[in-house]
Amino acid sequence: MGGKRLPGAQLGAGLFPSATPCEPRSCTRWAGGQVGRGSGIALFFFHLCIIFPLSFRVYGPAESQSVVFGDVCPLLTSLLDGYNVCVMAYGQTGSGKSYTMLGPHSKGGESHSDMGIVPRAVEELFRLISENPPSPEVEVSVVEVYNNDIVDLLAKDSPAVTSGAKREVTAAGDARKEAAPPTCKAVGSASELLRLVRGGLQHRARLPTLVHEDSSRSHLIVTVTVTTALGPDSAGKSPAVLNPPTGAGRKSSVCGPARPPRPPEPAGRAEQACATLQLVDLAGSECAGVSGATGPALRETSWINRSLAALADVLGALSEHRGHVPYRNSRLTHLLQDSLGGDAKFLVLLCVSPSQKHVAQTLQGLGFGTRARQVERGQARRRPRSRTGAV
Ligand SMILES: Nc1ncnc2c1ncn2[C@@H]1O[C@H](COP(=O)(O)OP(=O)(O)OP(=O)(O)O)[C@@H](O)[C@H]1O
């Protein structure tokens, strides 16, 4: 992925010494870790949890996907230990978010070395599960936030599935109204899960723009839920180790905030621990004048930028400890509320271009990273155990 170096495109080099200039398309990826009690400046791959206090990292254009995944990998162990985890890619359109999260999916012929964070995380999750039998129950949902509407990409009757990815622009939803919970499919292997994600991706809204020939027009959120049934002697032990087998009777269900309570468990299997992994590929911030968006595409651009602004507002409110955090100003922040302001381990990969041409968008992205680093949260917490399975 090495990009041609651009003399003079030194943006950020003073602030971030290991930054390497590159072509816009082969982004410079920055990694940083920060923990709940966030201090320090800025950026990139910020990490609101207790594992990598005050560390952050900058990836140059020559870094491989596997190196980037190296900073994500420990979070999978945390997931099986009962923590909620969120990994999010942020950046301007064309800066490499989808490549980093999903791999070069649109070009086909993906090699293993190009695989993005989503397939790597899923494979690692099932590898860890196989090392600690019996297996927990794993479910997946795939949704996109498109024009402030939540589109269920696994639902057979969703507009995206019935009319295709190039669907008509739909009316924007009211973020204050509760959305129906998305389809959640139970899966027993990494390949099964990734098949569902790939199927959902086929229906994601995409459009060629002047900046990016295959631009995502929606925020993609893949949610993997790991539910562990705990026996009566489970106190103090890892959920992944303690969970009884759940292979039989897997079926589609619904998940998310409005999940209905499960029926009572039989004696001795009453307690459950549930942890979620959210993998988020945001749509790219975009200047309509540069991307050439008009008509419905302009409306998409407007909603993308508004929802990203709402995300920045939420981080601003959290960093300033304001009494009211405006999660409900957008579907995106509403969906991510638990990860942004809750007790999840939260990692953001900021993709930036140091090309002079994109300086305004790059500065805007770095400002987002700075704001995110200023958020102070407490330590990430393991999910409490519940008698009903809803935590
Ligand atoms: N690290 C990289 N190495 C090689 N190619 C890359 C890299 N990052 C991005 N690309 C290529 O650059 C192009 C744009 O990347 P990508 O689709 O990931 O951008 P994006 O940020 O998701 O854009 P948008 O927000 O518009 O969807 C793609 O063709 C992708 O394959």
Automatic annotation (TrEMBL):
PROSITE patterns documented for this protein: KINESIN_MOTOR_1, KINESIN_MOTOR_2
Binding site for ATP: 91-98
Entry keyword Nucleotide-binding: yes
Biological processes annotated in GO: microtubule-based movement
Pfam families, per the entry: Kinesin (PF00225)
Keyword Transcription carried by entry: no
Segments for region (Disordered): 235-268
GO cellular-component term (any): microtubule
Molecular function terms from GO: ATP binding; microtubule binding; microtubule motor activity
Family indicated by similarity: Belongs to the TRAFAC class myosin-kinesin ATPase superfamily. Kinesin family.
Entry protein name: Kinesin-like protein
Species per Swiss-Prot/TrEMBL record: Prolemur simus (Greater bamboo lemur)
